[in-house]
Structure formats: C-alpha cells, structure tokens
Sequence to fold (326 residues):
Amino acid sequence: MLLLSGLVFSVTVFAETPPVPAEASAAAPATGQASEYTEKGADTCIKCHDEDSEFPVFSIFKTKHAQPADKRTPFAGLQCEACHGPGANHAKTAQPGQKQAPIIAFGPHSKLTADKRNPVPPEEQNRICLGCHRGDARIGWNASAHESGNLACVSCHKIHAEHDPVLATSSQPEVCYQCHQKQRADFNKPSVHPVRFGLIACSECHRPHGSNTSALLAKPTLNQTCYTCHAEKRGPFLWEHAPVAEDCTLCHTPHGSVYPALLKKNPPLLCQQCHSPAGHPSIARTADGLPGGTSAPSGFLLAGSCTNCHSQVHGSNHPSGVKLMR
Ligand code: HEC
Ligand code: HEC
Ligand code: HEC
Ligand code: HEC
Ligand code: HEC
Ligand code: HEC
Ligand code: HEC
Ligand code: HEC
Ligand code: HEC
Ligand code: HEC
Fold:
C-alpha cells in the first residue's frame, strides 16, 4: 500500500519533471533499500534529523530548494526524498544494536555502510540532480573534464547550506583549490587577475559544467573569453599585431605571473622569442643595433624596453602606427 501511494504521489507531483522519481528509484537498488516513500515526507525525517543531530539539516529550508510555492523544487514534491530517494525503510526506528536501513547519501562517504564508502557512485548521484537540472548550463556536463574526472555535483556544491560557497565570488576559489593546487600558487603571484581579492570568480572565465573548449573556457575561443572584459583589445586595428589577434597567451598567462602585467617574460626577451635577434631589435639592453648607438647599454632598452618605443603592442589605429609606436 505504501509503495502504491508513493508511486501515485510521485507521478502527480512530478508531472512536469518526470525523470526525478524514476531516477531516484533507479538509484535505490544500489543501497539495497526498498523503493517506498514515507507518507509524511520531511516531517518524518526531521523527527530524527534536527538541529541537534551531528549533521544539522534545517539550513536547507532557507535555500531555493525549499520553496514549496515553486512547483519545480523538491519541497513542492517529495521533499527530502526527491534527492535522498525513498526513505520509508530508513525512517523506521532501528532495532537496538542495529544500524538504520540505508538511504541515498551524497559525496564519497556513507555512514551506514560498513567500510564508510558510498555505494552510490558519482554518476548515479548526479543523475538525481540532473533529473531537475539538465537545462542550458549543464548541457555540456556529459563529456566535460569534470564529468570524466568522476566528479559529483556535490564535489563543488553544498546543498544543506544557506549560502553555497561555490556560488559566491569570494568563496568560490577555495572550493576549486581543493583539487587545483597549482592554480592557488599562481593566484598568489605578484601580478594576477584579482581573484584572491574577491573581484573575479573562476567561473567568469571557466564553465565548470562543461564547454566546447579544452580548458572549459566560458567562450568558444580563448581570445573571446578575454574580450568579455578587455574589449578594447579586440580591435579592429588599422595595424594589427599578429600574435594578439591569434592568442593572448602567447605573451600572457591567464592566472598569475612573477612578471608585471601577467606577462610570460619581460621584454626584450618576450619579443625576441619571435623577432629576429639580428638587426635593430637584436641585442638586448645594448645600443649597438639602434640608431646612434654606442657600445654602452642603451637607455631606450631599460625599463619598458621594446615597449618604450613600440608602446602600441596590442595594435595601433594611428595612420602611421605601422611599427606599433603610436
Ligand atoms: C528514526 C530516526 C530516523 C529517521 C526518521 C530518519 N533518519 Fe536518516 N538517519 C538516522 C540515523 C541514526 C542515521 C545514521 C547516521 C547518523 O548518525 O547521522 C541516518 C543517516 C541518514 C543519512 C546519511 C546516510 C549515509 O549513508 O551516510 C541520510 C542522507 C538520511 N539519514 C536522510 C534521511 C531522510 C531523507 C529521512 C526521511 C525520509 C530520514 N533520514 C529519516 C535516523 C533517522
Ligand atoms: C536538493 C537535494 C536535497 C534535498 C531536498 C535534501 N538533501 Fe540532504 N543532502 C543532499 C546532499 C547533496 C547532501 C551532501 C551534503 C551537502 O551537500 O550539504 C545531503 C546530506 C544530508 C545528510 C547528511 C548525510 C551525512 O553524510 O551525514 C542528511 C542527514 C540529510 N541530507 C538529510 C536530509 C533531510 C532530512 C532532508 C529534508 C529536510 C534533506 N536531506 C533534503 C541533498 C539533499
Ligand atoms: C526536484 C527537482 C530538483 C532536484 C532533485 C535538485 N534540484 Fe537543485 N534546484 C531545483 C530548483 C527548482 C531550483 C531553483 C532554480 C531557480 O530558482 O531558478 C534549484 C536550485 C539549485 C541551485 C542554485 C541555488 C541558488 O542559490 O541559486 C543549485 C546549485 C542546485 N539546485 C544544485 C542541485 C544539486 C547539486 C542537486 C542534487 C544533489 C539538486 N540541485 C537537486 C530543483 C531541483
Ligand atoms: C567543478 C565544480 C562544479 C561541479 C562539479 C558542479 N558545479 Fe554547478 N556550479 C558551479 C559553479 C562555480 C557555479 C556558479 C557559476 C555558474 O553558474 O557557472 C555553479 C552553478 C550551478 C547552478 C546554479 C546556476 C545555474 O546554472 O542554474 C546549478 C543549478 C548547478 N550549478 C547545478 C549543478 C549540477 C546538477 C551539477 C552536477 C551535474 C553541478 N552543478 C556540478 C560549480 C560546479
Ligand atoms: C573534486 C576535485 C575538483 C574540484 C573541486 C574542481 N575540479 Fe576542476 N578538475 C578536476 C579534475 C579531476 C579535472 C580533470 C583532470 C585534469 O585535467 O586535471 C578538472 C579539470 C578542470 C579544468 C580543465 C583542465 C584542462 O586541462 O582541460 C578546469 C578549467 C577546471 N577543472 C576548473 C575548475 C574550477 C573553476 C573549479 C571550481 C569552480 C574546479 N575546477 C573544481 C577536479 C576538480
Ligand atoms: C581571467 C580568466 C581566468 C580566470 C579568472 C581563471 N582562469 Fe583558469 N584558465 C584561463 C585560461 C585562458 C586557461 C587556458 C590556458 C591555456 O590554454 O593556455 C585556463 C586554464 C585553467 C586550467 C587548466 C590548466 C592550466 O593551468 O592551464 C585550470 C585547472 C584552471 N584554469 C583553473 C582555474 C581556477 C581554479 C580558477 C579560479 C581560482 C581559474 N582558473 C580562474 C583563464 C582564467
Ligand atoms: C571577468 C573579467 C575579465 C576577464 C574575462 C579577463 N580579465 Fe584580464 N583583468 C580583469 C581585471 C578586473 C583586471 C585588473 C585590472 C586592474 O588591476 O586594474 C585584469 C587585468 C589584466 C591584465 C593586467 C594585469 C596587470 O598586472 O596589470 C592583463 C594582462 C589581463 N588582464 C589579461 C587578460 C587575458 C589574457 C584574459 C583572457 C585569458 C583576460 N585578461 C580575461 C578582468 C578580466
Ligand atoms: C605580443 C605580446 C602580447 C600579446 C599577444 C598580448 N599582449 Fe597584452 N600586453 C603585452 C605587454 C608587453 C604588456 C605591457 C604593456 C606595457 O608595458 O605598456 C601588455 C599589457 C596588457 C594589459 C594591461 C595594460 C593595458 O594595456 O591595458 C592588458 C589588459 C592586456 N595586455 C591584455 C591583453 C589581451 C586581452 C590580449 C589578447 C587579446 C593580449 N593582451 C595580448 C603584450 C602582449
Ligand atoms: C608570438 C610571436 C611574437 C611575439 C612574442 C611578438 N611579436 Fe611582434 N610580430 C609578430 C608577427 C608575426 C608580426 C607580423 C610580422 C609581419 O607582418 O611581417 C609582428 C609585428 C611586429 C611589429 C611591426 C613590424 C612591421 O614590420 O610592421 C612590431 C613593431 C613588433 N611586432 C614589435 C613587437 C614587440 C615590441 C614585441 C614584444 C612586446 C613583440 N613584437 C612580440 C610576432 C610576435
Ligand atoms: C629607441 C626606440 C626603439 C626601441 C627601444 C626598439 N625599437 Fe623597434 N623600431 C624602432 C624604429 C624607429 C623602427 C622603425 C625602423 C624602420 O622603419 O626602419 C623599429 C622597427 C621595429 C620592427 C620592424 C622591423 C623592421 O625592420 O622594420 C620590429 C619587429 C621591432 N622594431 C621590434 C623591436 C623589439 C623586439 C625591440 C626590443 C628588443 C625594439 N624594437 C626596440 C624603434 C625602437
């Protein structure tokens, strides 16, 4: 009877999002639980899971998931069990000395299995979330680096938190740094995109849920990603500097650098990677190759070096800017 009412209930409530109950019960066998929902939903759960329990759950009532007026949310339907799956068996009082019957848990660990490993693999956990969140932003999830890296949605998201840290610019980097240690080091270098000051989020340049580019970039190409904030570098220029239009990272690192302006190297070495070391631009910091030179180091190559004269290194719109000097 319980089973029947559970099914009828779920079909009517989820008429608009049919995948959910199907996904939830499909994941159920992994934990060995029966596919029965409780009759009273959250009211049953919070008899045991209250604010005094080891993992306080009430904070979820302050989130977008707990908006009963919004028909799409869990709390307009199966409530806790929309995510955790059918919980009637689990909600029964356990015999003394016995553990609670299992229920779907998220993340790598489960309290109710002997070896503490979660028997619900990330893919099945994610299917529950994707049942409601398959829309636009997650279209690229399958086949993304994070999906093939076997991440769960909850590797980044906190559901039982009033404010999910990964959604806020200031707290997001810490979530990413758990796994991306090298980027933490990069963003602590002297010249950086101001991520550590809470002014830019990783997700302004990256699509954590997947994109068509190799590094999960927010736009179809690297340069387009940069132009979203540095539009003045897009041109069109009368006198283009070829590498700029091709790829900003020929000269810049995106995260952080020990050189000023996020450069990979300082001029003249930066420029001499491509420009012949013979002739005028040749010998770094000596005047020999320059007009009017002596053998003493040239003042022109100090400080800004090549950019003392070629200041329009990103391109020039001046009629006589062909040598990128104005
Ligand atoms: C009779 C008390 C009781 C009821 C009712 C109850 N639980 Fe539990 N639940 C427990 C206990 C005990 C644990 C063991 C872990 C712990 O100490 O927190 C647990 C653990 C869990 C876990 C973690 C499972 C794991 O493998 O780590 C989840 C998730 C959970 N409950 C959700 C629910 C939901 C959803 C409901 C309502 C459908 C519910 N519980 C109803 C007592 C209860
Ligand atoms: C939108 C999906 C969703 C809903 C709805 C939901 N939970 Fe959870 N629950 C999760 C996720 C994901 C986690 C893992 C921790 C986190 O993300 O905060 C979790 C963790 C838990 C845990 C801790 C398990 C552990 O490892 O100790 C308990 C207990 C729990 N939930 C009970 C409940 C109860 C009770 C309700 C209803 C009041 C509920 N959940 C509603 C997704 C949900
Ligand atoms: C029953 C459907 C349903 C399920 C299952 C579900 N969600 Fe949601 N979720 C929603 C709805 C509806 C919203 C509110 C969307 C809005 O306001 O535009 C939402 C909002 C969110 C948000 C944005 C919160 C915010 O403050 O902006 C995140 C992140 C999220 N869900 C992640 C998850 C994850 C991770 C899971 C799986 C553990 C999950 N959801 C399971 C329906 C669901
Ligand atoms: C690598 C970390 C990461 C993983 C894994 C991840 N997310 Fe997100 N998610 C984010 C970040 C960062 C944001 C905020 C910026 C944005 O919208 O891209 C976000 C935003 C969201 C939002 C709210 C905004 C929106 O796009 O509607 C939802 C819903 C959401 N994620 C669901 C999911 C689901 C479902 C999964 C699992 C399939 C998942 N996320 C996996 C990092 C992650
Ligand atoms: C739980 C660990 C984990 C978390 C948290 C995480 N990532 Fe990842 N990330 C991975 C794995 C695993 C890969 C795929 C393997 C690889 O290329 O390193 C990956 C790949 C990436 C890539 C693509 C790398 C490439 O070379 O194509 C980017 C970009 C990225 N993550 C950004 C983020 C951002 C931004 C966040 C925070 C919103 C984040 N990650 C959070 C584990 C994580
Ligand atoms: C200003 C834009 C921008 C911001 C902000 C940004 N990234 Fe990136 N990131 C890039 C670009 C562009 C690449 C690709 C570099 C390449 O292909 O040479 C990249 C590459 C990566 C990679 C792949 C490995 C690598 O280093 O090349 C990871 C992982 C990554 N970013 C993580 C992060 C994390 C984590 C954050 C936030 C703490 C972050 N990124 C913030 C632009 C950005
Ligand atoms: C989300 C907006 C945003 C995106 C996207 C972005 N930047 Fe930036 N960029 C900034 C901000 C903000 C600063 C800091 C400006 C300041 O400090 O005055 C900055 C500064 C810089 C600087 C100068 C750093 C210094 O120390 O003077 C360079 C170079 C740069 N960005 C290159 C890039 C490149 C290359 C890309 C593409 C991979 C890119 N930016 C994408 C916002 C962005
Ligand atoms: C040929 C090498 C090179 C390429 C390619 C390049 N830059 Fe630069 N960029 C520089 C140099 C050198 C500086 C330092 C300027 C100075 O010293 O006056 C700089 C400075 C900057 C600055 C900070 C000062 C300013 O002019 O606003 C930003 C922002 C910037 N670059 C963005 C970009 C973007 C976006 C791209 C790709 C569209 C790009 N750069 C491609 C060499 C390059
Ligand atoms: C990644 C390779 C690369 C780097 C690095 C590079 N350039 Fe260039 N540069 C080019 C190419 C390619 C052209 C176009 C040459 C042509 O059209 O014959 C060019 C053209 C120029 C021109 C115009 C030459 C002409 O004959 O019109 C100047 C001036 C110049 N670069 C200066 C610099 C300076 C200064 C730097 C360092 C800040 C620099 N370049 C770094 C590749 C590079
Ligand atoms: C004192 C000013 C000055 C400095 C410093 C300088 N240049 Fe030039 N550069 C010029 C002038 C003037 C021309 C135009 C010469 C001509 O038209 O014959 C030129 C032309 C060029 C050209 C075009 C090649 C050609 O033969 O027309 C390149 C490439 C170039 N410079 C690169 C560099 C690089 C790389 C550096 C740094 C190592 C550098 N310049 C430093 C003034 C300077």
Remarks:
- The first strand starts at residue 191 and ends at 192.
- Residues 143 and 228 are 26 Å apart (CA to CA).
